[in-house]
Specification:
alpha/beta, globular, ATP-binding, six-stranded mixed sheet, transport, ATP binding, ABC-2 type transport system ATP-binding protein, ATP hydrolysis activity, 28% strand, Rossmann fold, 9 helices, binds adenosine-5'-triphosphate
């Protein structure tokens, strides 16, 4: 199987100035991510879990080229993300649940047209893909509304569509179900499941919602204090604490206790 994402011995540090009295400040080095090594193969659906401040967003920012690693090597769809951001954007769709990539004052449909120009998608291909996405994500009722008038769930569906209009083989999502009601959440999950199963899109998703993990991910990676603490299937995750019955309890144990050895071969 070909590896779509390759992360080797990656570290990312931030230097922050900490005030010490009126005139003095010292520098503090924060190791957001360290010794991070993993692969994601084509067609996998992987959940990326971790407590607040564990290093998830830093990882996603490095995978999408927003941040360069301080050490190590990253390849996504064959490219070094921080050096080839434009080329990468054509091969990878990215969705940030906490902020939109759509144009706030424009009708949703116009944002999609801009995305078509940005990625230089052929007009006919765009039309066909947009029609498909409108149907499965039910965008029709608000396609002509300005983005600022959309509800969170509508905006999220719009953002997911925008990320997929150019039909990238890889989709990276940072908390895509945050703040969504149970019905919208189920619709988004159903869409992502179909995308992975039917189109073979490789999906990596960060979430604090363990329902996303249970319902979508065959594989889970758990990061804690910047290091990969677990990498395996959901069943293997559950087996790390056989006395617990819910995934919430198992993950709480992992967040608060000693991390187990990773079971992946
Ligand atoms: N730009 C920055 N400057 C300084 N420190 C940073 C910066 N970005 C992240 N950090 C630090 O790096 C660590 C990892 O942060 P990161 O945002 O990757 O965590 P996270 O797992 O995404 O957390 P959350 O679940 O709360 O979103 C934290 O200690 C954070 O304070």
């Amino acid at each position: 199987m070909s590896q779509v994402i390759q992360v080797r011995d990656v570290a990312r540090t931030f230097t922050v100035r900490r005030k010490k009295g009126l005139l003095r400040a010292d520098r503090l080095v924060v190791e957001a991510v360290r010794d991070l090594t993993f692969d994601v193969a084509a067609g996998e659906f992987v959940g990326y879990l971790g407590p607040n401040g564990a290093g998830k967003s830093t990882t996603i920012k490095m995978l999408t080229g927003i941040l360069a690693p301080s050490a190590g090597r990253i390849r996504v769809a064959g490219l070094d993300p921080s050096r080839r951001r434009t080329a990468l954007a054509r091969r990878v769709g990215v969705v940030f649940g906490q902020r939109t990539t759509l144009w706030w004052d424009l009708p949703l449909k116009d944002s999609f047209t801009l995305v078509r120009h940005l990625y230089r998608v052929d007009r006919e291909r765009h039309r066909a893909r947009l029609a498909e996405l409108c149907e499965v994500l039910d965008l029709g009722p608000f396609l002509h509304k300005p983005v600022r008038q959309l509800s969170l769930g509508q905006r999220m569906r719009g953002d997911i569509a925008a990320a997929l209009l150019h039909d990238p083989p890889v989709l990276i999502l940072d908390e895509p179900t945050i703040g969504l009601d149970v019905v919208t959440k189920a619709a988004v999950r159903g869409f992502l499941r179909g995308l992975n199963a039917e189109r073979g899109t490789t999906v990596l998703l960060t979430t604090h919602d363990l329902g996303d993990i249970e319902r979508l991910c065959r594989r889970v990676m758990l990061i804690d204090h910047g290091r990969l603490a677990f990498d395996g299937t959901v069943d293997q995750l559950m087996a790390t604490a056989p006395e617990e019955t819910s995934i919430e309890d198992v993950v709480t144990r992992l967040y608060t206790g000693a991390a187990p050895e990773t079971p992946r071969a």
